[in-house]
Amino acid sequence: MTKQKTGQQAEINIGMIGHVDHGKTSLVQALTGKWADTHSEELKQGISIRLGYADTTFYKCDKAKGAEGYNVDGKCETGKAVQLRRVSFVDAPGHETLMATMLSGAALMNGAVLVVAANEKCPQPRTAEHLMALSVSGVKNIVVAQNKIDLVDMKRAKESHTEITKFLKEYGYENSPIIPISANQGVNIDLLIEAIETHIPTPKKDKSKDLKMYVARSFDINKPGAKPEELKGGVIGGSIVSGTLKAGDKIEITPGLDGKPIETEVVSLGVESGSITDATAGGLIAVGTKLDAFFSKNDEMRGQMIAKPGKLPKPTKQVTLEVHHVERLVTSKAEELKANDFVVLAIGTSTAVGQVAKIGSKNEFEFVLKNPVVLEKGQQVAISKREQSGWRLRAYGIAK
């Protein structure tokens, strides 16, 4: 029996966001060596696609000056490499039909890299929508990667920088650094790492709080033809928001199946680099369970929440929110939410389809959803409205 490799949990989740084809996945590859899997075309209910993710470790050469010594391979021409921190990147899809999935990914992000292509005008439609999604999700720390500078001349590079600066100021992110890079050529990746280290700090962890984890992926790791005694339970991937988790813990997965929470036991914990003994708030983890793998195959558990049994509210299909329209994205009365409008609510990592059932006083909206969700009082929810061109972020709500 081979001994499992010991891994290291990433300290932070950093989103990779921006318009389609601006180079998000190429940049993840430049930073991690991994081509994040974001291109499965099997849409579910027309609004879902898998989030890509990959881990990396940032290093700094102790004798290097400025940004020159920042890297991800731990190699130095002189001196030794000092490990700074391990980071999980969450690659959010930029296509317009996948906005709801980007919003579900935003729930995992502690900061973000906004990728803007220098050879296109800024902002493109999804660039603005993604930045507002971060704002709605409470993500304050971002770094802008001005990508594809190898495809433009100096004049256009400066024009692009001016466009990005104006755009950031309009959306309240004017203090965010803009780093010119070429992801495909590996240009200025060291400067980008330095900016991430400086401007996106690791959030403080409170291990004393109750366990709460958002599920972003789930798997059946059993090979076809495996014997019954060889079968392993379902694996659930995601991020802990608060509290801790270790092997042997009893957990509740909710809203579960048809609104009935599922209780199971943690068998193992793993990260991209190997197995770990316990997990805390921070980067993406994989949780091995005793759950029948039939229920975890093909991301079937995406959008669920994990907690200790009995700690979360009961699942419900009726939700009341205090709604605030996003002024920068709602330019006419027709774009505001009305009774009977079809919507997608991004609640944690879940995307729930429903309708506006009733509009009351003080911006209170009642929604009836197709499937049950778990919602805590005061939780912020992103609201997308169905329009002819697809799902559009139009408002956010606060759970009553």
N to C succession of SSEs: EHEEEHEHEHEHEEEEEEEEEEEEEEE
- Class from secondary-structure proportions: mainly beta
Report the radius of gyration as a whole number of Å: 21 Å
Q: Helical stretch count? A: 5
Strand order of the largest sheet: 3-2-4-1-5-6-7
CATH superfamily of the largest domain: P-loop containing nucleotide triphosphate hydrolases
Largest sheet: 7 strands, mixed
Total domain count = 3
Number of strands: 22
How far do the termini sit from each other?
A: 52 Å
The percentage helix is 10-25%
Judging by the overall fold, what is the CATH architecture of the largest domain? 3-Layer(aba) Sandwich
CATH topology of the largest domain: Rossmann fold
- DSSP strand content: 35-45%
Q: pLDDT under 50 segments (min length 5)?
A: 37-49
Question: Mean pLDDT across all residues, rounded?
Answer: 88
Name the CATH class of the largest domain.
Answer: Alpha Beta
